[in-house]
Amino acid sequence: MDHYAVFGNPIGHSRSPFIHLQFAKQTQQTLDYQALEAPLDGFAATTAEFFAGSGKGANVTVPFKEQAFEICVKVSERAQKAGAVNTLIKADNGDIHGDNTDGIGLVRDLLNNNVKLAGSNILLLGAGGAARGVILPLLDQNPAQLVISNRTIEKAEHLVDNFNNKDSNHKNFSATPLNALQKHDFDVIINATSAGLSGHVPDLPSDCLNRDTVCYDMVYLNSITPFNQWAKDQGVTTTIDGLGMLVEQAAESFSLWRGVKPDTSAVLTALRGML
Ligand code: ATR
Q1: How far apart are CA 98 and CA 7, in angstroms?
Q2: Contact status, residue 239 vs residue 215, Cβ threshold 8 Å
Q3: Which end of the chain is more exposed for a tag (fewer CB within 10 A), N or C?
Q4: Atom of ligand 1 nearest to the CA of 151
Q5: Residue 157 Cα, ligand 1 centroid: separation in angstroms?
Q6: pLDDT at residue 170, rounded to an integer
Q7: Residue of 100, 157, 159, 193 with the most ligand 1 atoms within 8 Å of its CB, for mutation
Q8: Annotated catalytic, 25?
Q9: pTM for the complete prediction?
Q10: pLDDT at 60
Q11: Which of 124, 127, 86, 89 is nearest to 104 (CA)?
Q12: Cα–Cα distance for residue pair 115/126, rounded to 1 Å
């Protein structure tokens, strides 16, 4: 049997085994998928052992996505731009290839929710790994502008500089400090900060959005997230959490491994019921 896994630390509450085993059942694939905790100082050794055995592919989550990037012989362009890998693939010659499906997962979930991205004004909040991973797939949707903002603005400026080099210059991608956003009126705001984990919300001027702005929080909880609650308090009608992104990034990994695209909607409904 082909073996797959998700590596993280901690990993106990991962939903990935449920999602991938549902995909396998649905597409009649015989495979095993487990959540495996790698020691904080032993990610490379743990994954090397997995792939030396019957491991065919793996997902990687916090805090190992940057280390996963380092162990790959080859990575996709989107993983290269993200500087992080969430999907490891064992090639036929035994080499480990890396990809990053987080950004396409976000984009697909937004499109599934009928959120228009082409021609839209999009604000991305945060400049850590979660934000970095979604920039290229968002730019690929041809927004009118993608503005990135962060509590520490230098980090956002650095990300923009990294994306805009001699090979590619995204004129519609720029950084703006949080306190200078009020003159904007965004169609979509995506929260990629970890502020919600401590119950906080980025310090955003309330006049950078209107009731038709779609607010998307990349995290999910069993109740509304602090950012989405803040958005509703400002009168926003559409808020979306990151559960659909989780399922969509998994579906993209699954199809890279197995060559078949699973149906995500039934799995998302089942998962929502389990929260
Ligand atoms: P991740 O990999 O989840 O992106 P990270 O690399 O630690 O985690 O980045 C966390 C992001 O959340 C950063 O953009 C951080 O802002 P700073 O760069 O200023 O630290 C942001 N963040 C965390 N707590 C926040 C808070 N209370 N308010 C606003 N932004 C916050």
Answers
A1: 14
A2: yes
A3: N
A4: 19
A5: 15
A6: 86
A7: 193
A8: no
A9: 0.97
A10: 98
A11: 86
A12: 21
Q: Which two tokens stand for residue 256?
A: 């890279």
Using a 6 Å CB cutoff, which residues line ligand 1? 126-131, 150-152, 155, 193-195, 200, 202
Number of the ligand 1 atom closest to the C-alpha atom of 132:
4
Q: How far apart are CA 178 and CA 184, in angstroms?
A: 11
Quote the mean pLDDT of the chain: 96
Burial class (CB in 10 A: 0-12, 13-18, 19+), 223: exposed
- At 165, is the pLDDT very low, low, confident or very high (cuts 50, 70, 90)? confident
Domain boundaries, the chain: 2-100+244-274, 103-241
Dihedral pair phi/psi, residue 3, rounded to 5°: -110, 135
Sequence-ordered list of residues with C-beta below 8 angstroms from that of 76, at least 6 positions apart, any chain: 97, 98, 99, 100
Residue nearest to atom 18 of ligand 1 (CA): 152
Judge whether 2-100+244-274 and 103-241 match in fold.
yes
pLDDT of residue 166: 65
d(CA 36, CA 40): 12
Q: 56, 65, 81, 90: which one is catalytic? A: 65
CA-nearest residue for atom 9, ligand 1, is: 128
pLDDT of residue 69: 98
* CATH for the stretch 2-100+244-274: 3.40.50.10860
Contact call for residues 242 and 220 (beta carbons, < 8 A): yes
196-205 pLDDT tens trace? 989 999 999 9
CATH class of 103-241: alpha beta
